[in-house]
Batch of 2 targets.
Target 1
Amino acid sequence: MSGPDDRETAGIDATTDRAVGADSGPDTVTTPTPDTDPDPDMVTDTGPDSAGRVSRPAAERQPYVESTIIMTTVRVIAPFVLTLGAFVMFHGASSAGGGFQGGVIAATTVIMLGFAFGINPVADRLRNEYLGVLLILGVGTFLAIGFGGYLAGDTFLEVSAYETVIDHGSKYSIELVEVGIGVVVAGVITGLFFLLGTGIDSVAIGTEDDTE
Amino acid sequence: MTDTLVPLLVAGPLLGALLTVAAGLLDDRAPPVVAVLTLVGQVGLAGWMGSRALLDGPLSNGVGGFVAPYGIELVVDGVSAVIVSLVALVSLGVLFYAVDDDPGGTAFYTEYLLLVAGLSGMSVTGDVFNLYVFLEISGLATYALVASAGTGRSAVAALKYLLFGTVAASLYLLGVGYALVATGTLNMADLSVKLAQVGYDSPLVLASFGFIVVGLATKAALFPLHTWQPDAYNDAPDSVSAFISALVSTVAAYALFRLLYTVYTPAFFEAVPVARDALVVFATLSIVVGSVLAVVQSEVKRMLAYSSVSQYGLVVVGLAIGTPAAVFGAVVHLVGHAVMKGGLFVAAGTVDDLTGARTVDEYAGLADRFPVLGGASALLMLAMVGVPPAVGFAGKWYIALGAVRAGTWPVAVIIFGSTLLTLAYFTLLIERMFVAPASPSVRAATDGGERGLDRPDRPSRVALTLIVVAAVAAIALGLAVTNLQVALEPTLDTLLAT
């Protein structure tokens, strides 16, 4: 229904927008192709609007509308998803499962919350410190098990030495490492998702000299 | 007892990286302190273990008590002792420059320590798959560090490096896969035995050799696989260029050495002479093209980057020729290049901070205004060219000697020719610095008034100390090279025994 002519018009619209807004920021990306998004920072997939553009900049988009259905559903299933994540994580040592898979499942809990309650409100709550603490806990668990090998046995990460400390010690220690991996993976996935979702707004595009 | 502590060489920086994150959450000023303390510890540990390995023979440890060849083995022999100590020392030195020059945030110091962990791991691992893991750890940390300048150009350079580095690591992994299919083992020492049993002319073994060499050669930036390298060196923050130019490719070249001599062994080269010839041709091409490209550069950092392409060609030629002298020369040149190139990049970064000069022409008159900086840089450049008694001379001399002894005269001629080209581009720079009248940017830096807003009027003490230390080290290493030869002789004899 939209022929090449429409697309051409849309392209002109887009370039005009650019020309008007050109002095608004140090954005140096040029978009010569007609059907490219006028604002390359925000690409959304909302379908053609009345002006014939296929996407809109964030400022023109409708704000997030809270949907009771989605919020209720997420509220109900989130604990189950988190439990599943923990379950998979804890089965890394002896059966199918593991920290990587379990961590991703656990991270989807937070991502679901983002979908249900809006990405920005959830991102505001997720402070950098939380993710930092997750990282420290995860890697710290691994290193603690590793260095503990010197105390319990002779060498780094000597999990078999934990048998003398506690029954099934090697299994539990490997399990702990898996949980550590899971915590790190969950933190990284959550961090990446919200970084992409909220956008990096403070990218310094400047001359070479002002960065050092 | 020492053997069981070998994993600390990797776990130490990793713990340091974790503590850096923790310290960063508490106080913004804490991360650099933690990073410096970690690397001081790393220098002590590497020095202690390195001296034990050189004096008492190799240290080895099966991680987690899992015995090799099933578990992962970490080995410190003579050569890895040298490399792991080099990594610790240079990373500590450059860290001082990083703290002084562009104080990054928590993320910067964390990535820095992760990179040290990765490089140390690559130096001490005795397992080809574990080497891949450390290759990726150091790769990922490097991409992030290159991008940490925050400019568009550094982001593009990091992306380019990421694409190249990932493909390179994948090729390496593919090679490891072929070797695993052929032998069923991943332990280096075990592989060397089993590869011989499979037969060196088996297609699986040949394919694995090809993939591994191409993968590691990309990481070491040999022509024509070097295209990521000038951008990464040029657009990264000054301290990061110094760090990666000194260490990242060095450790990749060391990994190639390890694979060639511990896994494939000289017997492979004897069974498949075409592999050796191909490697020699590949590396000599790199020497020549790298030098020629360096001569035509106008930007100093890019010139230094292309010079590295040529120097790594030299190292790989030494490795490929495979006579004891040539291999020893390659190791010496690897160490010497790290010290000299690291120092030169610190100098280039300092000059950029002082005057904004980035091109050869803008360097004009620099030595008049900043005599110590200019003098020490010139010394480093001459050492790089190979003026005796500097380490650059020692490395080239041994490689050329090895080439002559092996009867490959053309290689010796090319080494001599490339020395002339190296002389050409560095003399050009030295002539600018000492003889030519001052360029506008150099004049502006010292006359005041016109000077940029926050340009210092003299080089920072830390940077100057580092450059002078690098220059002194380049000469001291050259003088101490016979001692090093004695220390490394047992290791190299074992590796080169067929």
Target 2
Amino acid sequence: MELLAQQLITGIATGGIYACMALAVVMIYQAIHHLNFAQGEMAMFSTFIAWQMLAWGVPYWLVIPLTVALSFVGGVAIERLVIRPLGDAPVLSHIVVFIGLFAIINSLAGFIWDFTIKPFPSAFGEGSRFGGLISNHQLGMIAVTMTVLLMLFLFFRYTRVGLAMRAAAENPASARLVGIRVGWMIALGWGMAAAIGAIAGILIAPIVFLEPNMMLSILLYGFAGAVLGGLTSPIGAVFGGFMVGIIENLAGTYIPEIGGELKLPIALFLIVTVLVFKPTGLFGRTVVQRV
Amino acid sequence: MSVNTTTTDARQAAASTTATGPAGAVKAVSLPEPAAASGNAKIMRTAGIALLIMGLTAPFMAGNFLIFQLTMMLIYGIAILGLNILTGINGQFSLGHGAFYAVGAYTAAIMMDQFGVGYLWTLPVAGIICFIVGFLFGLPALRLEGIYLALATFALAVVTPQLFKLSPFEHWTSGVMGIVISKPEAPLGLPLNPDQWLYFLTLAIGLVAYVCARNLVGSRTGRALMAIRDNPIAAGSMGVNTALFKSLAFGVSALYTGVAGALGAIVVQYISPDSFTFTLSVALVVGLVVGGVGWLPGALFGGAFIMFVPNIAEELSKGLSGAVYGAIMILMMYAIPTGLGGLLKAALTALSKRSKTG
């Protein structure tokens, strides 16, 4: 029973990270209808920036807002400089550009900070609560992701800019007619996705350790979460991310054949199974096509 | 006929409309005038023969390492050709073709290593096994479209090396250790060194593969595949068995890539799970897009791009080679979003229009 509770909590903690990545993916998908394959690398780069500032002796409480702000600017810049000039090129050209971004960011991080694995300190310190049931870091992860998700919900629900962003994603033509600057809303979406990714990266780095390839599997789980909940539903993506985290941990613990080495294929299995039985995800909208 | 290879998907057609001006220009791309078509065909044929002569003489002038690189270029070309049948002709995305390449490579390596089968026999077996695997993967893929299929296949690409590391298969795959294969000698006492022999073998297989792909695209089956790409509902209502043909496209595509993988294993003489990370799948997609989606000869140029451009990037900057390669990719997409095939098509259209008016 204690093992089950422990695994559930671990699942919820890592699931929160997947939920953040899934949400970042869905935000960009809603804005430009393309999957950002470089999302994980953007988060990784942000995490390296945070690490560098910590190494320079900047206090932790200052590092996080600084990193988030820098990531936001970086996300907007990438949209403005790299994605925008592409216009409505074919889907595959977009995918190649994302691959190019992936390569550039990965190589830059390796060049600046090299490819050795670095430990990343937790913002919440060592130790654990409730008789070892949950570590401080896990508790912090859950608290931070919950706060981020709640703030995003409030932002999209109750602010003018949030409403404008939703309108721009839902119906760009009409949004432009009522005076919303759709282009900047998309750039804002990129910035926010990058900022969410930065938080996810900082939270997961103490667990997976810091290195340029650390986010690849996290991104895959994020994709799995996004697909599980539906690429058209931000709330669904968050739910999907938590589900993926829990399933991953429980399956890894209770199905001995899976163990550690098959954890990643679970993500593949989940993606394919969900898509086969419910192609729009659990909360997704079905797109009706006129013949 | 060039008519078959010049059909584009609606998206590309829309893109080229903006690139070439009035909407009438698109019509000229998909249905060229007979005179212009034969003129273009002549240009293409001359270019093809010139390329073939270059291909036949190259191994006598190049060093062994360059021959090896050229062989790998052809192998990637064959794999991209397979991907082109799936994506360019049938309109299904795959970011996971490295998995089929890996299956082909492992089939060849295990047959040679465990059962002592001659290397030539491993190629058809790898093809058949990959056809079956691809067909089976194509069945669930029937439910997926566009970006969802891209996602599922991307997941397959990331997972592939882990699948080949699994302990139950270790007896055959030797796990992370990988399998070493010995290099075959030229048969019948041909005056060729092993590198040259493998080059010519690959070239011959590549030519056969290309001719087969062309004939497939020109056949009834090819038209069914393109009809599904352009409008699946219309194709279905005209009596095309959409499910069967989509799965078949996956199977045939995997067959090509699997044969390429088997050849790759023989040429490189060593395989391990980490030879087939998702970067391989990604490279194949990059080659496909750079060569031109839907334009079969583009596979050769795509193969050349993914073989040689990373080396060029490495020479430009050792530490930042990945960044240089990524930047080249992005710049290519700005310059020619529809790949070399799209560029060539636009150029030929402009040429034939000028010869008609002037």
